[in-house]
Amino acid sequence: MAELEGLEFGKSDFVLLDEVTMEQFMENLKLRFEKGRIYTYIGEVVVSVNPYREMEIYGKDAIDAYRGRELYENPPHLYAVSDAAYKAMKRRAKDTCIVISGESGAGKTEASKYIMQYIAAITNPGQRAEVESVKNVLLKSNCVLEAFGNAKTNRNDNSSRFGKYMDINFNFNGDPTGGHINNYLLEKSRVVQQQEGERNFHSFYQLLRGGCEETLESLHLENDAALYTYTREGAATAVSSSDDRKLWDATSNNDRTSHKAVMSALEVIGFSKEEITSIYQILAAILLLGNVEFGSEGESVQILGQDTVNHISELTATDPDSVAKGLLFRTVATGGGEVIEKGHTEKDACFGRDAFAKALYERLFGWIVSRINSIIEVKNYNPVLHGKNTVIGVLDIYGFEIFDNNSFEQFCINYCNEKLQQLFIELILQQEQEEYQREGITWQHIDYFNNQIIVDLVEQQHKGILSILDEACLTVGKVTDTVCLDSMDTKLAQHPHYTSRKLSPTDKTMDFKKHFRIRHYAGDVTYSVEGFLDKNKDLLFQDFKRLMYNSSNPVLKEMWPDGQLSITEVTKRPLTAATLFKNSIVALVDKLACKEPYYVRCIKPNEMKSPVLFDDARCQHQVAYLGLLENVMVRRAGFAYRQQYPRFLQRYKMTCEYTWPNHLMATDREAVEAIITQHGFQGDVAYGQTKLFVRTPRTLFTLEQERNTLVPILVLFLQKVWRGALARLRCRRMRAIYTIMGCYKRYKVKAHFWEVERRFVSVRTMPDYGKSVEWPAPPAALAQFHSITTMLHRRWWARQIVKNIPPSDMLEVRAKVAALTSLSGERKDWGVGRAWERDYLSSVRDCPHTSAAFIRVSKELKNKDGYGQVVFSAFCRKMNRFNKSTDRALLVTDKFVYKLEPKKQYKVLKRFPLDSVSELSKPRRFLQTCCQPSVKCLFCFSQFTGLSVTSGADQMVALHTSSQDDVLLCLQQGELCPNQDRVGELVGTLVDHFMRTGGSCSGRLRGESTFRESLQLVIVPPSAEVAPAGADEAAPDDGEGGPAGRSAARAPGRRVVDAARRRVAQDAAVALETVSRKPDVALIRMHVENGIRKSLFPVKVCRSALQLHMRGKPKKVTVETKPGQNVADFKKSKDGFILLVPEK
């Protein structure tokens, strides 16, 4: 706690001093500075002394220690006053502000950054992305504004050369939702001229020393600030000793680091790459403007060095001739409306150049601030939806300045400090004492210096210095700074706080016709009147405004909206710089006055920037003009907290049994007295006419603690009652909902049935049997029913289509269905749209010259081998075992596959049995449970184990055998259609044959296999003979536990068990395509994946190379297109073969 801090550190609150004297005040301040305690309270005001070193009193641990604590619970700190402002804003929904004041170099900018960091750290505990984004922009904006608005002065290495007031908006949860930044009086004269030992704005040096070589080259700059007139003074800050050299190196490194930080901050804030590029192009253009020199030839003025002008025009996206014209001439409108061009003198050209450079930088800085505001502004805010929008304002503005040469800027800055001091006096000293008198509180009046007389000296209408300056600027004719000074001497001669050399001839510290002096609250300041009128006029030729507005760079165009007016349209004289500044400061003071203020008073301990030196005289002067001693007196005699009786009662009535929930006393004041009496705080309060005054924060803190203890209990009680009410309401609603849902679901089910009946009532008479009828969307309860009914309809529809197919066409339909399922859509063209001839070698249309000979040979083979029918026949190109390709004829029957020699009257070269029986030494695993050990399983296997085709349009086929001596061939087209694809027909006929026969030999099955039967398992004893065709397929179950038991119990013989009877026709899905010969009959695609893909004759479609074995060796066959190739042929390759096909 603050008062428990060790006595060796002095008093943590100046209110606790034994005697309120300047000596004791300074002694306590110095002791705490020497002990590393840079913060001290005056009640709720924080006095901060710049330590000029890094302090280990910030960071996450310190933030956690101060979060939610009262002021006096921890040692004095910036975090404590930040938390107090945040709590006041959140608890009482009242706008607050933190005013940071002090002279230049006292640490105001650093204090504002720590305050912003603390507020960002304690808000948004839920880590909401949009709030985090706002916080990041608010924090990063400090880095950007420091780079473009701060500079090194003789009194401060990071002096704010502009005033900044930031409003942070919070929602009802206390999370930041946006903000707004106001900037005041940027010291733009620093762009073109600095005092000895000072620098230009940081941004110039960061660009020159931190920009990469490529960037500087694109901006026509070099990595040396001494090469540019506007930065030469800052680059030449004495490097006469080794210490100075080290300091210069450290500054350069800091500029490089800062440049990277600024670039990163600009990206985080939301500046686009084009906008960032435009910012640095403008900086480069300003630097190059400073290097533009003028020379006179007679009466004309010329620019020396056109290259610089060309670079400026490139950087500003303007015409070089227009830039040169703007620098050398001025467009003037005469009284008669005539427009003439007036050439500049060399002096006027230099003045215009510098004015242009200053205006460019000022507009750039203003645009950056407005761009940040557009990003962080509160968007889509609705008080009804989002609650009250509260604000915490943070004011970081230039401190009081006394330089060797004080000009117009210092005059405005010191006037601003006078206004802020006046606000402090009104809020802390004057209003407080007036309130005590108004409320009837016993009070001893405390005298204090009221600086209203100085404020009036500057801003009073018709008599103040600002009015005299404006009057001089508006006077027609040659009015100089000296004439203006004479006017001030005349009008202000009797003012006690104004003097000049003319009014005080014996004061040799001032010069005649040059200086005047104002006795400010912070001390006497002598101002040089030179340049006052020019700076107040802030003259900029309209030609430059129009030049920038006509730039093709959208950022520059946006900065100069007033450039769209022509010279004849510009008639209104703009307000002077002093008037604009006065208006903005008055608005700022009004904005601060309507908020609850918290103060941070910064003190600069010495002029040497030393962490150990404490200049008593310097510090005493600051304590005096800041009014800190008077503040202590008012605080000791006053009260820390005051509140109206109704609001106090509303907040703390639950802490007293006589006031909760509602009191029965005559007035709210009596109820408040009851609360105070119950807690025993009678000696620490005073009762006013309308308010209760509490002297120490401890009393208020005790009440807050008790309230915080009771609030959860009350909340739980209210939650219990409200939850019960909600539960009962929810129960009634749920019952009603379920009743409505039940009725509605029944209605939806019935409605679905009605709709299905309506749509499908005449389906039997439709040409397509309802295929085109769209099924209604089913309710969720009927999802399974819907899938079953749609499947039943598809089966019925397929059955109707199949019934209409002639028996003569069923063989072709089956083959096409088998081909479609085997190829799985991987082969695009497989002949589905044409009629399949099957036996092409006997077709007179396809083989008119050889069909007769083939018919004769096929009859002979049929009589000899006894096959039933020809499955497929065609010419082909075959690779033999000697890796040579020859023309052959392929004949596939239901028993054998023949290789024929067409050139020798279809001589049979080789015959392959299409079916063979292979014996397995072990039963199948899925039959082990039902087979006796003495029973062997015989499967019907084909000697051909499958076939492979490619996914292309070639006619290559590889027939795989169990002996790994595969057959590779390429089907050839006949004369019927040269471009027919016969691969699909071969695949379909073979697969359909194996499906119908189950891989068994012809005649082994009883009767003709139906389309739904696919595989039969023959189980016979080892000594039994195969029964002839017509034997029983199955026998009734005898109760012996399966087929094995039945085979043991019954007489020996063949027992045929249908182990996998396929329901192929019932699983029909949809129509494939229209059969070419019968367009009105749809070809049914049967779902036979379980019957074909798992059948004894698999088909593989290869997308790249085709794999096979020849004489046990693996081969790979690829397909290539060869120009000039007439017919497809094979060619040997390194690892197999290549099929050369003609180019289409």
What's the tally of helices? 33
CATH superfamily of the domain at 816-924 and 943-996: Pleckstrin-homology domain (PH domain)/Phosphotyrosine-binding domain (PTB)
CATH architecture of the domain at 816-924 and 943-996: Roll
Number of strands: 37
Ranges where pLDDT stays below 50 over 5 or more residues in a row are: 238-242, 916-942, 1000-1095
Structural class by secondary-structure content: alpha+beta
Domain TH1: 825-1053
Family: Belongs to the TRAFAC class myosin-kinesin ATPase superfamily. Myosin family.
Pfam families: Myosin_head, Myosin_TH1
Domain Myosin motor: 9-708
Summed up, what is this model?
ATP binds at residues 102-109. The protein is an alpha+beta fold and 1144 residues long.
How would you sum up this structure, described in words?
- The structure is a single chain.
- It is built from 33 helices and 37 strands.
- It has 1144 residues and is α+β, with helices and mostly antiparallel strands.
- Among the domains are: 643-731, no CATH class; 816-924 and 943-996, Pleckstrin-homology domain (PH domain)/Phosphotyrosine-binding domain (PTB) (PH-domain like, Roll); 1081-1141, no CATH class.
- A hairpin with a 2-residue loop joins strand 21 (885-893) and strand 22.
- The radius of gyration is 51 Å and the shape is elongated.
- Residues 238-242, 916-942 and 1000-1095 have low confidence and may be disordered.
